[in-house]
Amino acid sequence: MLAELTGQSAHDGAVASFIGQVRAGEELIALELEHYPAVTETALDEIAQVAVERWSLTQAVICHRVGRMQIGEPIVFVAATAPHRRAALAAVEFMIDVLKTQAPFWKKEHTRTGAHWVEPRADDHAAAEGWLAKPQDRKL
């Protein structure tokens, strides 16, 4: 997907991206994500659109997997293209921070002792709130 963004606009000097993967945790065997497609896709599109408007991006992309994933597998891809690197990098950071609490996913951790649902962590909420406290982002 990154190759599809590269070289698309002669005015873009930056392509920034982030790939999140399932990380090992105590006793973690796998991670499972569920979602309601129409609602989740709309939320991801809205987050990307806010990034486009705020940083004057050429493109913003969020691609998030669902289903069961093993440790080390990719879970999310976020990218932005812009004339300058600072805009692209900030937009990618914004999108990943905000989607962790604003996009409706249900997350289940499978461990050696069983499975349990988990909520976003306090630091995930703090990161999103830092971006959403800005007046231009309150519409999310």
Model description:
- The protein has 140 residues and is α+β, with helices and mostly antiparallel strands.
- β6 and β7 form a beta hairpin.
- It has a single domain (2-132), classed as Aldehyde Oxidoreductase, domain 3.
- The longest helix is centred in the N-terminal third of the chain and has 19 residues, at 37-55.
- The strands form two sheets. Strands 4-2-6-7 form a four-stranded antiparallel β-sheet. Strands 1-5-3 form a three-stranded antiparallel β-sheet.
- The protein has helices spanning 2-5, 37-55, 85-102, 122-132, and strands at 14-21, 28-35, 59-64, 67-70, 74-82, 105-111, 114-118.
- The protein starts with a helix and ends in an 8-residue tail after the last helix.
Overall mean pLDDT score? 91
Discrete helix count: 4
Structural class: alpha+beta
How many domains? The number is: 1
Give the overall shape, derived from the CA principal axes.
globular
Strand content: 25-35%
CATH homologous superfamily grouping: Molybdopterin biosynthesis MoaE subunit
Spans of at least 5 consecutive residues whose pLDDT stays below 50 are: none
